[in-house]
Amino acid sequence: SLKTAATFKFVATISGTTNTKVTWLLQHREGGTINEATGEYTAPTVPGSYLVVAQSAENSKIGRA
Predict the structure, then answer these.
(1) Cα separation of 58 and 19, whole Å?
(2) Residues with Cβ < 8 Å from 16, sequence gap 6 or more?
(3) How far, in Å, CA of 37 to CA of 35, rounded?
(4) Residues 41-53: b if buried by 16+ CB within 10 A, e if exposed
(5) Which of helix, strand or coil describes residue 36?
(6) What gap in Å lies between CA 44 and CA 41, rounded to an integer?
(7) Which of 5, 18, 50, 58 can bridge 31 by disulfide, Cβ–Cβ 3.0-4.6 Å?
(8) Distance of CA 57 to the CA centre of its chain
(9) Tens-digit pLDDT profile for the chain (65 aa)?
């Protein structure tokens, strides 16, 4: 849970491959903003439930909205 306009840094750990790069995506455009490379998220000013997705570069088709 985050307050509106609050920030949070997401972290993901990828195992089983040498390619551990992660791209961060938002499921909904109105769900705030996220830095795709660093996982730094800023919640929107409108309260609600929003989905953040960590996508492995190894399998970039998984998690695509």
Answers:
(1) 6
(2) none
(3) 6
(4) bebbeeeeebebb
(5) coil
(6) 10
(7) 50
(8) 13
(9) 999 999 999 999 888 888 889 999 999 889 999 999 999 999 999 999 999 999 888 776 544 44
